[in-house]
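// run 5 | inverse folding | seed 20
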């Protein structure tokens, strides 16, 4: 499943594409919202691993503007609930993720991203 918690870790890995290859841009996506159990401790522990600007930009590409542009110092319940929703409840079911550098497209079908490359693209 493509959720933003996963998307935030993905970069293009085409041979020779090693700058400006993150974050992958969403295009022509269909999303589904699925409830997930709220766990504030998990969120607080995972936050240092997040690329904040990439997360906010990806959420906005998917139509969610609930996250602030800058990571707040105070992590109140409202913020954590919005973060939970963006990271864990928005599922990209169909569409593509495109590298901002080389424009390689990674298709998403039935919620599964295809990150496999053709032989000549492997670096």
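// decoded
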């Amino acid at each position: 499943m493509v959720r933003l918690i996963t998307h935030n870790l993905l970069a293009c890995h085409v041979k020779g594409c090693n700058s400006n290859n993150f974050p992958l841009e969403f295009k022509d996506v269909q999303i589904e919202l699925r409830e997930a159990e709220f766990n504030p401790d998990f969120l607080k522990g995972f936050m240092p691993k997040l690329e904040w600007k990439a997360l906010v930009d990806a959420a906005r590409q998917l139509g969610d503007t609930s996250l602030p542009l800058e990571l707040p110092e105070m992590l109140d319940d409202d913020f954590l609930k919005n973060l939970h929703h963006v990271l864990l409840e928005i599922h990209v079911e169909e569409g593509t993720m495109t590298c901002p550098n080389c424009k390689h497209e990674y298709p998403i079908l039935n919620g599964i991203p295809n990150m496999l490359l053709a032989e000549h693209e492997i670096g």
